[in-house]
């Protein structure tokens, strides 16, 4: 914590130092206490804390009264007292609801955790709702989140490590994994990446994704985010690593591969054939959500010969009098839809659906009737939007949006040639990515049959590895990951 | 080993199969039919055993020089003569890029984008290829692992879709004009198989480096390459007759125009665009990548210069594709008389020679060591 003044002198020096520095804060309390004499020598103690951060009742009953009775402060509260060695640590502890104590016959400043922060209680998941399965979500309390994890997976194999991140205002992060799941290398990488975070006041795990990713800036998500403890357990027992952060109601799951973003919480509790059907459907939806407007624009602008004559005539008739060419029309319609989506997210829940209906039905219908756009265009944009909404991961839906606009521009310029070029670039981008060293597109390519069956829901559990037998179909990282070079 | 360059044996073989087969089923079909007429479809089968010896030689050479590329071990095998030979290989790989790019842009302009200048298409396409190549051999291999099964599936679809138009009696009688036509196409076919010499540039990056597995997959890749030559050749002759097929610049493209998907897509030739572009994408990225990597190795450049060099050479190939071939007849003649014979020489005939020399040198060296220890 930098080079801050040390706190290892007598009580008067400490009192002086704290008085000149951190006691200037509003609500800071310095409290002096006369203690029973020991061997005839008079003793006293000084306590420092922030009024609003501390449970005053516990302070009275668990610290003040026992100390007045002559007990030592080190063993008074449930959590063991920490020794504070410098001023920065003292400031950090006070802000986190600790009480600093020093007695006249000691050179040690002790910190007692008497924090009293209000946390909301466990609620239903807000963004990952499910029909079947548990309905609990994480809260902003890290101990509460960890207790949910431990309760759901009470196994000696569960490992929980804490790491403090940030420089001047450290915040506690926790890595949870199943022993024998992730490789040592993966764990080492995660620890190093967390330690490398120098940003202070990290508020949510979302702010860590850039630091934890193999590729810092990417349009495809390489880390899963979840607010559900049951989802964390499903992944942790499958060999993944979960990262929690103090004050964050979400957890990160790593490594996360492309196929993982098509998994919905319900999939863990539904019948397998149904899960396979739904996952295939979502995969198709993703492949619709990106290129559909681009295909429409390229066909209507450059390759009308690909369509049957009657359909071509019908399309041309629909477009008669339309003021904008198909590429611009598609761009405007897609942008309008994105604005509508943004508006419905920002508005209060009671009004959001109304805006969606008004926007989707009324504006769309009016646009067609006024001849500003062709009905087929509205159909294409709407079908694309519905396809994007069917994706379980909002991040993946956003990715689809970015690429949709990119492909639309390419298809508008070069027709099918541009569309394919864009698709090949997306493919190259996907192929170059990894999550904690595991190829992002595995098990699709490099193809791994058993893992693929699991990803499609055709296998109930991840396949067990066959020792150290080298598998040519997955790269070394994936192989180590799936076959489990046991963690520490 | 650089992770962006590390691939498995299966990926390497698939990469070669995906990158090379485009010549056999799209780029050079007309040349094969012009050389061999009705009997041309047999050439792949005749050339296959010779090419198999070449592939075996390539794998043995990589076993003699683990972790090294052709450019790195050529001077070890041939001494100073190895440097110009390595230079010839690099020129050959770059020519492959230029020739593929030129054919791709020509075809685009001929088929779907008649009014777009070919240099615009070439430049745009090359930028997309550069992005893939920049990501490294591993990324190119993974793209290929996705596109190759798709391309094969679509190829089979069009083959089945045009079954009713095929008259297989057009493939016979064989040897009506003697064995000359078959031998002519066989030589050109060897030129096509010669592109598999790119294998020697990537085997050093295969991990784990298991020779048997590599040999097995490489021979399977050769089989794939032979099938993708023989199938479209036989298909084109059976559909169009060899007299018509040899007059057409892109006979296999014609097959796509015969297929329709229900009543919704009247013509599926747009899927042929997919076939061509996806196939050429991996091919260009691979050949460009090995040419640039080979150049850095040959001239002892630091690896960091690889990426600027990649962009520079990539853009130069766009200019080359536009300016080197003033017209179609010149281009066709170049492929027929220079490119394919050079491929046969460098890819089929040189590797066994190299293996023999490398083997003789090893024997000589081992003999010397035994003599020294004995003394």
What's this entry about, in short?
Chain A is of the alpha+beta class and 488 residues long.
Task: Explain what the structure shows.
The complex is a heterodimer of chains A (488) and B (375). The longest helix of chain A has 21 residues, at 326-346. Chain A is elongated and about 110 Å long. Chain A is built from 17 helices and 12 strands. In chain A, the strands form 3 sheets. In chain A, strands 1-2-4-5-3 form a 5-stranded antiparallel sheet, sandwiched between helices. A 5-stranded antiparallel sheet of chain A has the order 6-7-9-10-8, sandwiched between helices. In chain A, strands 11-12 form a two-stranded antiparallel sheet. Chain A is α+β, with helices and mostly antiparallel strands. Chain B is 76% helix and 0% strand. Chain B has 15 helices and no strands. In chain B, helix 3 runs antiparallel to helix 10 (211-240), helix 6 crosses helix 13 (269-298) and helix 13 packs across helix 14 (306-323). The interface between A and B is large, with 33 and 42 residues.
Q: How would you summarize the topology of this molecule?
A:
The complex is a heterodimer of chains A (488) and B (375).
Chain A: H1 11-20, E1 28-38, E2 41-50, H2 56-68, E3 82-84, H3 87-95, E4 98-103, E5 109-113, H4 142-152, E6 158-165, E7 171-178, H5 184-195, H6 209-212, E8 224-226, H7 229-237, E9 241-245, E10 251-254, H8 272-289, H9 292-301, H10 309-318, H11 326-346, H12 352-369, H13 375-389, H14 394-414, H15 416-431, E11 434-435, E12 438-439, H16 449-455, H17 476-483
Chain B: H1 9-27, H2 29-36, H3 43-64, H4 70-78, H5 82-111, H6 118-134, H7 137-161, H8 180-193, H9 199-202, H10 211-240, H11 242-245, H12 251-258, H13 269-298, H14 306-323, H15 328-374
Helix pairs in contact in B: 1-7, 1-10, 1-13, 2-8, 3-8, 3-10, 3-15, 4-5, 4-15, 5-6, 5-13, 5-14, 5-15, 6-13, 6-14, 7-13, 8-15, 12-13, 13-14
Radius of gyration of chain B: 21 Å
One letter per element, helices H and strands E, the order of chain B comes to HHHHHHHHHHHHHHH
Q: Mean pLDDT of chain A, nearest integer?
A: 83
SSE order of chain A, one letter for each helix or strand: HEEHEHEEHEEHHEHEEHHHHHHHHEEHH
Most extensive chain-chain interface: A-B, 33 and 42 residues
């Amino acid at each position: 914590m930098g080079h801050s003044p040390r706190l290892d002198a007598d009580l008067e020096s400490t009192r002086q130092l704290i008085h000149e520095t951190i006691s200037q804060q509003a609500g800071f309390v310095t409290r002096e206490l006369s203690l029973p004499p020991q061997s005839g020598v008079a003793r006293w103690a000084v306590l420092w804390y922030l009024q609003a951060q501390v449970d005053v009742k516990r302070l009275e009953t668990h610290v003040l009264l026992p100390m007045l009775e002559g007990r030592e402060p080190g063993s008074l509260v449930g959590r063991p007292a920490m020794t504070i060695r410098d001023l920065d640590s003292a400031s950090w502890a006070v802000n986190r609801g600790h009480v600093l104590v020093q007695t006249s016959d000691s050179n040690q400043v002790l910190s007692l955790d008497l924090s009293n922060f209000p946390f909301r209680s466990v609620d239903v998941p807000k963004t990952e709702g499910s029909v079947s399965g548990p309905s609990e979500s994480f809260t902003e309390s890290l101990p509460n989140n960890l207790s949910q994890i431990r309760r759901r997976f009470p196994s000696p194999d569960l490992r929980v490590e804490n790491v403090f991140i940030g420089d001047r205002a450290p915040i506690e992060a926790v890595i949870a994994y199943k022993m024998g799941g992730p490789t040592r290398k993966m764990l080492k990488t995660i620890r190093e990446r967390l330690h490398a975070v120098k940003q202070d006041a990290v508020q949510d795990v979302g702010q860590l994704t850039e630091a934890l990713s193999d590729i810092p800036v990417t349009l495809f998500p390489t880390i899963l985010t979840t607010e559900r403890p049951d989802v964390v357990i499903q992944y942790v027992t499958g060999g993944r690593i979960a990262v929690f952060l103090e004050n964050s109601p979400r957890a990160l799951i790593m490594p996360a591969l492309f196929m993982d973003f098509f998994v919905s919480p319900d999939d863990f509790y539904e019948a397998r054939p149904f899960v396979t059907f739904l996952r295939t459907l979502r995969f198709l939806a993703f492949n619709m959500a990106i290129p559909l407007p681009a295909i429409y624009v390229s066909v209507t602008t450059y390759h009308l010969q690909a369509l049957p004559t009657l359909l071509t005539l019908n399309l041309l008739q629909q477009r008669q009098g339309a003021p904008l060419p198909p590429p611009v029309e598609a761009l405007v319609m897609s942008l309008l839809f994105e604005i509508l989506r943004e508006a419905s997210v920002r508005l209060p829940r009671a009004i959001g659906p109304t805006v969606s209906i008004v926007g989707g039905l009324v504006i769309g219908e009016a646009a067609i009737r006024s001849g500003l756009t062709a009905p087929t265009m509205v159909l294409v944009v709407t079908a694309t939007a519905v396809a994007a909404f069917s994706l379980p991961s909002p991040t993946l839906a956003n990715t689809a949006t970015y690429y949709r606009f990119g492909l639309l521009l390419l298809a508008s310029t070069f027709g099918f040639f541009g569309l394919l070029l864009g698709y090949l670039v997306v493919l190259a981008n996907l192929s170059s990515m990894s999550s904690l060293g595991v190829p992002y597109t595995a098990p699709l390519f490099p193809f791994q049959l058993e893992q693929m069956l699991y990803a499609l829901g055709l296998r109930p559990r991840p396949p067990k590895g066959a020792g150290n037998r080298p598998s040519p179909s997955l790269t070394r990282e994936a192989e180590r990951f799936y076959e489990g070079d046991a963690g520490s | 080993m650089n992770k962006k360059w590390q691939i498995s044996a299966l990926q390497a073989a698939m990469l070669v199969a995906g990158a090379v087969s485009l010549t056999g089923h799209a780029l050079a079909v007309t040349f094969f039919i012009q050389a061999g007429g009705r009997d041309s479809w047999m050439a792949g089968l005749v050339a296959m055993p010779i090419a198999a010896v070449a592939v075996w030689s390539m794998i043995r050479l990589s076993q003699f020089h683990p972790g090294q590329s052709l450019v790195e071990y050529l001077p070890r095998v041939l001494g100073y003569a190895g440097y110009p030979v390595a230079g010839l290989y690099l020129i050959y790989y770059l020519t492959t890029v230029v020739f593929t790019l030129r054919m791709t842009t020509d075809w685009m302009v001929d088929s779907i984008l008649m009014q777009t200048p070919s240099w615009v298409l070439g430049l745009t396409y090359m930028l997309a290829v550069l992005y893939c190549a920049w990501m490294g051999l591993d990324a190119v291999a993974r793209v290929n692992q996705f596109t190759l099964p798709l391309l094969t599936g679509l190829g089979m679809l069009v083959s089945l879709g045009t079954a009713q138009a095929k008259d297989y009696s057009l493939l016979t009688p064989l040897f009506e004009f003697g064995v000359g036509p078959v031998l002519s196409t066989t030589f050109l076919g060897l030129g096509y198989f010669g592109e598999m010499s790119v294998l020697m540039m990537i085997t050093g990056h295969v991990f784990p480096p298991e020779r048997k597995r590599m040999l097995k997959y490489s021979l399977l890749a050769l089989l794939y390459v032979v099938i993708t030559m023989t199938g479209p050749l036989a298909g084109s002759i059976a559909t169009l007759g060899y007299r018509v097929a040899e007059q057409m610049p892109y006979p296999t493209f014609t097959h796509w125009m015969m297929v329709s998907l229900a009543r919704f897509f009247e013509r599926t030739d747009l899927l042929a665009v997919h076939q061509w572009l996806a196939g050429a994408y991996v091919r260009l990225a691979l050949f460009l990548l090995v040419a640039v990597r080979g150049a850095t190795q040959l001239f002892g450049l630091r690896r960091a210069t690889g990426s600027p060099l990649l962009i520079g050479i990539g853009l130069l190939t766009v200019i080359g594709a536009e300016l080197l071939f003033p017209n179609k007849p010149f281009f066709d003649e170049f492929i027929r008389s220079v490119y394919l014979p050079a491929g046969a020489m460098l890819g089929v005939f040189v590797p066994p020679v190299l293996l023999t020399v490398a083997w003789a040198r090893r024997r000589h060296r081992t003999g010397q060591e035994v003599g020294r220890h004995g003394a």
